Amino acid sequence: FDDKFLTCDICQNIYEDPRVLPCGHTFCARCLEKWRKRKNESDFSCPKCRR
């Protein structure tokens, strides 16, 4: 099995506490929280596809 399917696109590590967004992309919960805070948006978009 290829690790790229288990890797967060934000931190590039194996998922830790993974979260799936409505668009289907998956990220670590901590990475998504940091992304949201950095973007300063309450209704943030996917870091990968911007949906």
TrEMBL record:
Keyword rRNA-binding carried by entry: no
GO MF, one example: zinc ion binding
Keyword Cell membrane: no
SUPFAM superfamilies in the record: RING/U-box
Domain RING-type: 8-50
UniProtKB keywords: Metal-binding, Zinc, Zinc-finger
Full protein name: RING-type domain-containing protein
Provenance organism: Branchiostoma floridae
